[in-house]
Amino acid sequence: MVEISELTDDLLGRILKRVNDPDDRKRVSEVCKLWFTLEGLTRRSLTLLRLSFLRQVLPRFPNLVTFQTSQLIEEEADLEFIAQTCPKLEDIDLSTTEFLSMFFPTNGLYGLSSGGGLPKLSKVSFSGIRLVSIERWLHKLAHEKLTYLDLGLCRVVDDDAVEAIGRLCTRLSYLNLKYAEISDNGLTLLAQGCSNTLKTLVLAQCYDITDSGFCHLQNMQCLEELDLEGCGYRTGVTDSGIIGLIAAISEILDLSGSYVTGAGVRAFSGHRCLQSLDLRMCHEFRLSDIEHMVLGCQSLKSIVLPNIIKETIPESLSRIVKFADEPWA
Questions:
Q1: Which secondary-structure segment (H or E) carries 303?
Q2: Relative to the CA of 43, which of 86, 159, 171, 273 has its CA 20 to 30 Å away?
Q3: In this predicted model, which residue has the larger pLDDT, 102 or 28?
Q4: Span 42-64, pLDDT tens digits
Q5: Average pLDDT over residues 143-161
């Protein structure tokens, strides 16, 4: 029988890669110094709870693929350290809910391009952080491989930022622009750059978009999921704009908080692919409009309605209708 001491570090590392449970990996790392080292070398994911431990902890995990911390990174040197220490990173999440008024370092994520940068980076999330010019750092990262970009709650994202995203990120499939300060022109620029790849687009609380802006989304040939919660609140997006989206939507549509009426709801009757529709906080339609739409949209599996609707749910709707409380209720 072969003793474990006779196994090579490479073979032990291959064994450890098959251990995914965090508790099991923790126990393994406590066996001896060798297992402690090997566990660090084979770790693929890390969530750092305290940024003050960054320089002490990160060198133990040079082969990380995913890194997350919710504490705001204020120093560009820390970003440079992350890139130099973990060059195999593919997914980095620096989102925060604690400091919505705070800014990143002056050069944004430019520090991540330090040295050889992160050539495999494909997923970037930093919702809740105020950023400087996106183009200043985006062209330095692996933008040609970037498929996922979360800029939700980054309120300084404007039309110029969206233009840079559309021009540089030619493989983007997911984009979150919640609360972005973009206009119809921004949607035009985005559609010109990501029309062949974007599958999920979040425009929730983008208040300045109008019916005309929605027309540009028709050019997005791969769009599957569109979140328009509260979108166009200042401009009053109407049925006209929503109806213009029908050809662009494939599977999931969030219209919560919109001004859609019965006519707009009925327009989705006959849609061949729509599976989920969210109409919470919408009050300008009746259940008869919903029933008409559902009967003509056989692909629909879920529809969310405001809980204040008092009408009796017809049997034809009961299998797919869900109710949601109003946020102020």
A1: strand 302-306
A2: 171
A3: 28
A4: 888 999 999 999 999 999 999 99
A5: 87
Alpha-carbon gap, residue 218 to 220, rounded angstroms = 5
Return the bridge partners of 66, or none. Answer: 45, 91
Report the alpha-carbon distance of residue 70 to residue 49 in Å, rounded: 7
Each residue's pLDDT tens digit, 154-195: 877 899 989 989 888 889 999 999 999 999 999 888 888 888
Half-sphere exposure of 96 (CA within 13 A, CB side): 21
Q: Is 169 exposed, middle or buried (0-12, 13-18, 19+ CB in 10 A)?
A: buried
| Helix residue ranges per DSSP H, 135-284 | 135-138, 159-168, 184-194, 211-215, 239-243, 262-266
What radius of gyration, in Å, describes the C-alpha atoms of the chain? 24
- Ranked by mean pLDDT, the top range of 132-136, 235-239, 254-258 is 254-258
Residues facing residue 92 across a β-bridge = 67, 124
Tokens at residue 266, please?
């009925």
**Sign of the CA dihedral 222, 267, 271, 231?**
positive
How many CA atoms, within 13 angstroms, populate the side-chain half-sphere of residue 85? 19
Distance CA(242)–CA(238), nearest Å, equals: 7
Q: What is the C-alpha to C-alpha distance for residues 251 and 249, in angstroms, rounded to an integer?
A: 6
Q: How many CB atoms lie within 10 A of CB 234?
A: 10
Q: How far apart (Å, rounded) are the C-alpha atoms in residues 127 and 104?
A: 12
Amino acid at 282: C
For CA atoms 131, 158, 328, 312, give the dihedral sign.
Answer: negative
Q: Model-level pTM greater than 0.70?
A: yes
CA separation (Å) from 87 to 114, 141, 228, 297?
Answer: 10, 12, 36, 48
- The enclosing H or E element of 82 equals helix 76-85
Residue 135 has pLDDT above 90, yes or no: no
Helices 9-16 and 33-42 sit at what angle, rounded to 10 degrees? 60
Which has the higher per-residue pLDDT, 167 or 130? Answer: 167
